[in-house]
Amino acid sequence: MYPQYLAFSSHNHPLHTANAMSVQLSPPSQLTFSPSGSLAQNPIVPLSIRNVSGSPIAFKIKTTAPLAFTVRPSLGLVDKGKSVEVWIRRRVQDAGVESATCQEKIMVQTVALDKVEGERIGDAEEEAAVASKVANFWESVNEDRIIQHKLHCVSPASTATVELSPPTLLTFPRPLSASPTIPLTIRNTCQASTPIAFKIKTTASKTYTVRPNYGIIHPGKSIQVSIRRLVRSSDTEPAAAEACKDKFMVQVVVLSEDEADRMAMASGQDEMAGKLSEFWQSVGKDRIVEYKLRCAYGPLQDVSLGERLTLWFGRMCGATKKPSKAKKSGLGKDGYYKHVPQS
Question: Where are the residues of the annotated region Disordered (predicted)?
Fold first, then answer.
């Protein structure tokens, strides 16, 4: 009988170029769990492992979430030129996770067998006997021989929870001394029938204000967020070649029906803000889908000739001051500040 649950090892050995093409995986890097029909709560995805090397291959499958998956077979033998199909079921209900989130990973480990090893395992006639010999082989195999193939798990809801406009880059027009404001549109494209909660974070909380910086978006609806770049007395216009290192992150969570009902009971904006604050403090990290955006400056041609001359003269005279580094005390582990001011 095949073991159903496996866990990741702490080892992460690099792929060796000579053995990197020992197997072909289909799909090669991503497993998409699409809920449909009677399997909506426990979708199944096939994974094909084809041996393209000149010797038999032993394989073993591991996962970062052993309670979230069943894998059959989870280990086995693939003769040269042959393939085996593995069935991976995502146990959404048993794992206690939301069907709209899927952030786990699957790892396929393979080892090319020498002639003696191949004959020893291949002599077994019954499937159970082969599985037993392969399991014994994996207990003693040298880790330097193991090739690792990593696959990400996704679901349609987790990959298309929202659409952002602009999608990846926030460009602030010059002159920055005018404290430019740009819009960011967040559209709820999730297949769930409940709203989503969103929150916006940044690596430079003292440089920007965001309105609103968190809220609720109902299915099929959108909201426009205004992001304003503030100006400090020590700021100078960046040079044309100077890159902006600031980043934003939009965090999204699909609400359950109970959570949506609690939000709907809020009698005003203040009560809604309080409920959202409590929600974000307690929500599990495995439910959060993150979208990252970079910041950039507009072309220097947007700045008038007089402003450009002032900028050039200030730099030539050494008047340009480097902005002071922000204190790190407000940074979260992900490098983003926990709160973005609204005004």
Answer: 320-343
Report the predicted TM-score, pTM, of the whole model to 2 decimal places.
Answer: 0.51
Residue 14 lies in a domain: no
Q: Percent of the chain scored above 70 by pLDDT?
A: 73
205 and 141 in a common domain: no
For residues 31 and 88, the answer to whether their CB atoms sit within 8 Å is yes
Angle at Cα 40 formed by Cα 35 and Cα 46, nearest 5°?
55
Domain containing 181: what range? 159-232+242-300
* Per-residue pLDDT band at 339 (split at 50, 70, 90): low
- Do 292 and 167 reside in the same domain of the chain? yes
| Inside any domain, residue 132 | yes
Over residues 138-163, the pLDDT tens digits come to 999 999 999 999 998 876 554 557 89
